[in-house]
Design brief:
Elements: H1 2-7, H2 21-33, E1 41-44, H3 47-56, H4 62-73, H5 77-93, E2 98-101, H6 107-118
Parallel strand pairs: 1-2
Length: about 120
């Protein structure tokens, strides 16, 4: 689907947690195959706050409930901390990845920082 959109001259934003090099490489290949730029931006708060933000997030949709249940079954905060660490490790292996701080209640600042790195 990303290939089709890029081939049609559209931008593609993948707001997704990706912490496996093979997945990132595959998306990068699709972009380059279509003659598009590939940008990696990691929106990141401090570990403890990232976990707390997940716990505070209220999403009563079926997907939100499923996601919360899945995280709880896989260890809750311990699993989220491991995901955070894995994301940092992968980010260090991707020299073009840019980390943008995403702090609580700083939506406008985060957006401005994101726009800055995408220019």
């Amino acid at each position: 689907m990303a290939s089709t959109h890029l081939g049609g001259g559209r931008n593609v934003i993948l707001p997704q947690y990706l912490a496996r090099l093979d997945e990132i490489d595959a998306f990068e290949k699709v972009a380059h195959d279509q003659g598009a730029d590939f940008r990696e931006v990691v929106l990141l708060d401090h570990k403890a706050e990232s976990i707390a933000r997940f716990d505070r997030r209220r999403d009563d949709s079926a997907w939100g409930k499923h996601n919360r249940r899945l995280v709880a079954l896989q260890g809750g905060p311990v699993m989220l901390a491991a995901m955070y660490d894995q994301l940092l490790e992968i980010s260090q292996l991707r020299p073009s990845a840019v980390v943008v701080r995403s702090e609580l209640e700083a939506v406008e600042d985060t957006y401005a920082a994101l726009m800055h790195v995408l220019r």
